Amino acid sequence: MTRRIALERARAVVGSRWFRLTVRVVIGGGVLVAIVARVGAGPFLHGLQSLNGAAIGAAVVLAAIATAAAAWRWQLIARRLGVGLGWPTAVGMYYQSQFLNTVLPGGVIGDVQRAVGHGRRADSVRMAARAVAVERAVGQVVQLGIAVVIVMLFGAEFEGVLFPAIGVVLVVLAVAAVAAAWASIRVRRVLRHEVDELRAGLGSPAVAIQAVAASVVVVCCHVATFAVATFAVGIDVPPLRLLTLAIVVLLAASIPFNIGGWGPREGVAGWAFAVAGFGAAAGVSAATLFGVLAILSVVPGVIVARLASLITRRSHRDRQALRDPQLRDLPRRVPRQRRPAEARPLERSGLRSGG
């Protein structure tokens, strides 16, 4: 009995949100400490000092295109699941979720907030969360597929590490899913339900093609932003080599064990640039500037989205006030009565009656 209680408590601790957040922060922070111990703080400072107006402007434009495409992908899938939303609303919420993902640990808190906010508007938090999960899964799968193709074509030196790592992760996930399904009928039902929901979200070939196309646009914009960061820090890399390096770094950026995106991204960037012959310090500098640009590029969109939300709420309240019978039937303000015209000359001359 004591052992069972201990196991239940341990399971509750491991499954808690604070434990997962702590693990992500510890791993991400540990990676950053290891990078500083390896290459020093100089590459980080060089990346920050390379920030300039041209790089920020390019990043803002690329982020706007990527956000518009991602919001369109989310809108398509949400509509298929019966919790549709307007594209302008989707763009604003996506900007806010990206900002939270880039400044908070784990890189998923913004998506959770987006799912909850959409669910409250659509009166179905569960289906809204499903739409966000499917939308992010499609983006990750497309990015992984692009990475495999690019590395096979142009990054032979990375195949010996990247492909085994991807294979190990996929095998571990598959074995865990099969073992859990074999051990529990409830898990089998959950997995079957997840597959059905995924099929529902992408059941139409037209929707699937559009979602994949939007995901390709998003990946291309991120690759271009990394190229901007690489050029800004003063590294001259041939286009195809830069494409491969950017894809590898983006894969690392999707690892959830980070602090606001920082950690594995810089570590893998240092390793990839070193393998490619450009030095680990160059990769860390490029990844550092890329991380800064990722934050700054979504700030204008967040500001615009918040202002638009406030204006929309205020106009909605005004319309409700006009529809309210109690407010509509209030008597109009009586204008102040003017004094008789014949009294005005007396007032101008300073005379008063009875003076």
Describe the structure.
The structure is a single chain. The chain has one domain (2-319). Helix content is 81%, strand content 0%. It contains 16 helices and no strands. The protein has helices spanning 2-15, 17-39, 42-49, 53-80, 87-103, 109-122, 125-154, 156-183, 185-201, 205-232, 239-253, 264-275, 280-296, 299-323, 325-328, 343-348. Helix 4 crosses helix 7, helix 5 (87-103) runs antiparallel to helix 6 and helix 6 runs antiparallel to helix 7. The longest helix has 30 residues, at 125-154. The chain is globular and about 65 Å long. Keywords: Cell membrane, Membrane, Transmembrane, Transmembrane helix. It is a multi-pass membrane protein. This is Dolichol-P-glucose synthetase-like protein.
Write the layout of secondary structure elements.
Layout: H1 2-15, H2 17-39, H3 42-49, H4 53-80, H5 87-103, H6 109-122, H7 125-154, H8 156-183, H9 185-201, H10 205-232, H11 239-253, H12 264-275, H13 280-296, H14 299-323, H15 325-328, H16 343-348
Distance between the termini: 103 Å
User: What is the domain tally?
Assistant: 1
Q: Overall pLDDT, averaged?
A: 81
Largest sheet: none
Secondary structure class reads mainly alpha
Please mark out the parts with pLDDT under 50 across 5 or more consecutive residues, or reply none: 342-355
| Global morphology | globular
H-E string: HHHHHHHHHHHHHHHH
Q: How many distinct beta strands?
A: 0
Assess the beta-strand content as a share of residues: under 5%
Q: Total number of helical segments?
A: 16
Helical content (DSSP H or I, runs of 4+): over 70%
- What is the radius of gyration computed over CA atoms, rounded to a whole number of angstroms? 28 Å
Membrane topology: Multi-pass membrane protein
Keywords: Cell membrane, Membrane, Transmembrane, Transmembrane helix
Pfam family, one: LPG_synthase_TM
Subcellular location: Cell membrane
